[in-house]
Specification:
alpha/beta; Rossmann fold; 10-stranded mixed β-sheet; 18 helices; disordered N terminus
């Protein structure tokens, strides 16, 4: 048996699950939450386990399954099962399962397809009510409905748990098993069925954001942090738990490449500097352009110094590149990104605080924003238009460290859960996420589209798409 610990203010038993059959996703998720997993074929003593889980009944004789469940319960274990038959139930198996297997289960975790087949009813609620009516007292049934959430049947209670809103779906492999292992872990740890199902729904949502089924699974602290980023609306009279994204109170905007179409000028400044140093027709490669975007000038100039053997002092190279860039800004001006004016208007209309969060130093920010405002016809000075401007000059570390976003949240006086950040680079996304902001919207462009935006809440085609998250 596991030891008693305190986690996030709760008392926990860290359970051990005995598995009859293989599910890498279930086992991985259970371990990540803090539990132990033992394969039934390798178990020397059943007394060491708290729970028997069956991840699939495919290929298992139901009489043998029943005897295994009875033995587990005789050892004091709880029992849980997901048939994983994808709705393909022979009629004789259905009847035998309900008569001989169901009475030996504490928890039955069904897909909507398996619920319909086992319950003999197309409607998931009707199927769930029928199955639950056949089960003994204390039995828990969950019907997983995908994007529609889950139905929980606990005796005479029927509860609907909404899914957690998500947008950045990478892979649906194993999402059901992630739900199962989380449900089992927290129920074994002493949480109620309702609480466990909410946490299971959250972990299932997280697993969608990574490839392979296991990469997106969360540990306990990560899971609680995710749940804390949503508002839980409990409607007791309707038996519904609804997860909603909190009201937006602050909008954080990166500058170069997101608000201001200045990346071409940034890249041209590097190219022009190298040409002036004797590298005729010099041009950064597409890979180098993607590498440079979102980083501090010093890092990029150091790369050029080492890669091309520049003799000048690094500080002189940085200074020269900066002067060329500002010359280009003054000569050509900086165009605003398409849709930025509408973003500004909507944010102002809704009373959101708008802040600039950038890796650029103060001097660059002043010149670029003033140039962009002239193009937009905004007469108000940037320092008055925005509710704060968080730059690399004001913090110790640049993106992808969270410093500029932590400072921005302090300037706004708003908790990260109420903020939306818009970024065009991987380093910017990582910076905002590291500061505790979940709703980080990535808007890649030609220089950054090959970067990794896995951590983004959503990846957008263009800036205009951000309106649906703000409005």
């Amino acid at each position: 048996m596991g030891g008693d610990r305190s986690v996030m203010g709760d008392r926990y038993m860290f359970p051990t699950v005995l598995m009859l059959g293989e599910s890498e996703v279930y086992a991985s998720g259970f371990r990540k939450l803090g539990g132990q997993v033992v394969d039934i074929s390798e178990c020397k003593s059943w007394d060491q386990a708290d729970l028997l889980h069956v991840p699939s009944i495919s290929g298992i004789r139901l009489d043998d399954l029943r005897q295994t469940l009875i033995r587990a319960r005789s050892k004091g274990m709880k029992t849980s099962l997901d048939p994983n038959l994808e709705g393909r139930w022979p009629s004789d198996m259905r009847a035998l399962f309900l008569e001989s297997v169901l009475p030996e289960l504490d928890r039955l975790l069904l897909s909507k397809e398996d619920a319909g087949a086992l319950g003999g009813r197309e409607d998931p609620e009707a199927a769930g009510e029928f199955i639950s009516s056949c089960a003994p007292k204390g039995f828990i049934l969950v019907v997983k409905l995908g994007r529609r959430g889950a139905l929980l049947f606990d005796g005479d209670r029927r509860v609907r748990i909404s899914s957690f809103p998500y947008f950045n779906v990478k892979d649906r492999i194993g999402v059901g098993d992630t739900f199962n292992c989380t449900m089992d872990f927290f129920m074994q740890g002493g949480k109620s069925a309702d609480e466990s199902a909410i946490l299971a729904s959250a972990n299932a949502r997280a697993s969608l954001e990574r490839y392979g089924g296991t990469e997106g699974q969360l540990d306990r602290e990560e899971l609680y942090s995710l749940v804390d980023n949503y508002d839980l609306i409990e409607r007791r009279e309707d038996g519904i738990y609804e997860m909603r994204l909190p009201e937006v109170k602050a909008l954080f905007l990166d500058m170069d490449g997101l608000m201001a179409l200045s990346e071409d000028l940034q890249i041209e400044a590097f190219n022009e500097m190298m040409r002036r140093k004797g590298f005729a027709n010099f041009a950064l490669s597409p890979q180098e352009k993607a590498f440079f975007v979102g980083r501090e000038d010093r890092e990029d100039c150091l790369y050029l110094k080492e890669r091309y053997g520049l003799k000048e002092d690094l500080e002189d190279i940085v200074r020269e590149r900066k002067e060329i860039y500002l010359e280009l800004v003054r000569e050509r001006g900086v165009e605003p990104n398409d849709g930025l004016a509408e973003i500004f208007d909507e944010a102002k209309r809704r009373g959101l605080k708008i802040l600039v969060v950038t890796n650029s130093p103060d001097r660059d920010v002043e010149v670029v924003l003033e140039s962009m405002f002239r193009k937009m016809g905004i007469s108000q000075p940037p320092e008055e238009f925005f509710d704060g401007i968080s730059t690399v000059s004001k913090v110790r570390r640049q993106k992808p460290f969270p410093d500029v976003y932590i400072l921005a949240a302090q300037m706004a006086g708003v908790e990260p859960r109420y903020c939306i950040a818009l970024e065009d680079s991987e380093s910017g996304v990582r910076s905002a996420r590291a500061a505790g902001i979940m709703r980080v919207l990535a808007v890649p462009h030609e220089y950054t589209q090959i970067q990794d935006f896995t951590e983004a809440f959503a990846v957008l085609e263009n800036l205009r798409e951000a309106m649906r998250f703000i409005a």
